[in-house]
Design brief:
161 residues, mainly alpha, single chain
Length: 161
């Protein structure tokens, strides 16, 4: 099967890339220099051809990496896009994003509660809680969910991946 252009979905006889970074990745090939000039990574992030699914071992490892990166506050959109292109199924990623979002919401509520109590205790000079904030953003998780929807729309016959 011939590769298709990431911009226009035409056949790629000789690959052209928007920049050195895309060339080094070798994933987002364009069919011509004019398509390469129009390449926008935020618009053309879904590959023209569906990536091969990750093996079972790789799937498990990549999900662990996804959970860790989301917990550490990496941008959910970036993490999810990378994992989709690595062949991780949409259903698996939806679950990880959902639970990370729930944990972030719970953490935010606990932090607000702790802040209220520590402020009260700080007023009376008894206690001051350390300021530790969960780096995750619930709204950023919603954007990642929208990217999962876009991926499923691009590959409907495969059920997302």
């Amino acid at each position: 099967m011939a590769k298709r252009c990431i911009v226009c979905a035409g056949e790629v006889a000789e690959p052209h890339f928007a920049n050195a970074w895309e060339r080094s990745l070798g994933r987002n090939a364009c069919c011509s220099p004019s398509c390469a000039e129009r390449f926008n990574p935020d618009e053309h992030w879904i590959p023209a051809d569906r990536p091969r699914p990750a093996s079972d071992d790789e799937h498990d490892r990549l999900l662990a990496v996804t959970r860790e990166r989301l917990t550490n506050g990496d941008e959910p959109r970036t993490v999810i896009r990378e994992m989709l292109q690595a062949g991780v199924p949409v259903a698996s990623l939806r679950k990880v994003v959902f639970f990370s979002s729930v944990e972030a919401s719970e953490s935010k509520l606990k932090a607000q509660e702790l802040t209220a109590w520590s402020s009260l205790w700080a007023i009376v000079g008894v206690f001051q809680a350390p300021k530790r904030r969960d780096p995750r953003d619930v709204q950023a998780h919603e954007v990642a969910q929208a990217d999962l929807d876009a991926w499923e729309a691009a590959f409907p016959e495969e059920g997302g991946l």
